[in-house]
Structure formats: structure tokens, C-alpha cells
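To close the section, here is one more complete example, presented without commentary so you can practise reading it yourself. The ligand is PRP.
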Amino acid sequence: MSDDRYLTFALGKGRLANKTMELFEKIGITCEEMRDKSSRKLIFVNEDLKLRFFLAKSPDVPTYVEYGAADIGIVGKDTILEENRNVYEVLDLGYGKCRMCVCGPASAGELLLHHERIRVASKYPCIAKDYFYNKKHQTVDIIKLNGSVELGPLVELSDVIVDIVETGSTLKENGLEVLEEVCPLSARMIVNPVSMQMETARIKRLVNELKEIL
Ligand code: PRP
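Output:
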């Protein structure tokens, strides 16, 4: 494939996107347009390198990549697991490190131990379901929440939560703790399967250059 075609990146909005652009800069990939933080523009272009970048809500990044609207996406492993899209995960970028955990009050440990039919609140119902049903073989009721999931056990909506733990301070400040670890998380690069075929050389070069500096 010729280098005339734009390679399009979908980046999860926020801290992850900033980190990604810092990393890309180290291998000579820059995007001047993106530096203007007051801009409301959604798509940024580097004409010289024939690259396009757009910022999207994290859960939408795998969707853009699956449909080929973006060739490459940068998003957390949590989102990749939850969205379960047809994309290739090609690189662990190492930042955004945290853990997906089952958390709750210490007393809920007993309920987990005895495989009781408990209520689990989570922003990640698919990850929670996979963990309890397929890994633990435990039947549970899953309640989808959209944020501040730690409230679940505090107001007795649920017995436990499945949520991201980074520093652990949200749990600590609310009298909750990690009861079980589901999996480690970090930022990953995902690629559209067709783009991988059509743009193999460019994508491989990018992945190798990133690997060298990681
Ligand atoms: C995330 C996560 C936890 C918290 C963990 O929430 O859902 O609540 O961060 O971080 P910590 O271990 O460093 O305290 P986020 O801030 O993304 O907001 P949300 O609760 O609305 O999802």
C-alpha cells in the first residue's frame, strides 16, 4: 500500500490521549493542531506524515476501529475487554496501569467464598459477567452503573463491585477493599484487521518503533 493513504488513529479522550501523543512525539510523530487545548476541532491532521487523529469517548474507540473508521486505536484494556470488538490488540503501551478488581466491604469476602448469589454493581457488566460466570462459575446478579460505582455497597444497592483500582484511595476513603483481582489493565494499541493486511509495513514499523522506546 502506498504512503499516500492517511493512517487514522482513534484516541480515547483525556489523559490517555495526552500520554499517547507524548509517546508518539518520541518517535517523531507529532500533531501541531492537537496542541491547542482550547480548540473544539475533532479531527487533527499531520499532512507531511499522512496521519489523522481523532479523539473519541473511550468505549467508542474499539467501535471506530472494528468498522475501519480508524485504522488504529489507543484505549485501555478494560474497554477492549468490555466492548469485545473484532480488532487486533498489537501492543501494550505500559501506561494507564491499574487493575480490574472485585471490591466491597471486608464482610463481603465470605459471600464470595461461599459462592452466594450476590449482587454485583459495575460499569463493566461484560467483564463482571465473564469473571463470575466463566471463571468462578458463580451465579450472580449484575447491575450496570455508569460511574461512582463505589456507591453500590455503601447504599446497599449491591454486595460488591467490579471496578478499576489505581491507587486504591477511592476504596480506602469509602471503607471498601479489594477482595479479588480480575485482571491487570493498561493502555493498548488495537488495529482494524483489514488495515493490518493493507498497511502491514506502516503499522509494523510504527509498532517496532514504539517497542524500542517502551
Ligand atoms: C475510577 C474508578 C474508581 C477510581 C479508582 O473512577 O472507577 O472509582 O477511578 O482510582 P483510585 O484507585 O486511584 O482511587 P473515575 O475517576 O474514572 O470515575 P467514575 O467513578 O465516574 O468512573
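Once you have examined the C-alpha cells, check your reading against these statements. The CA atoms of residues 166 and 196 lie 32 Å apart. The chain is about 35% helix and 30% strand.
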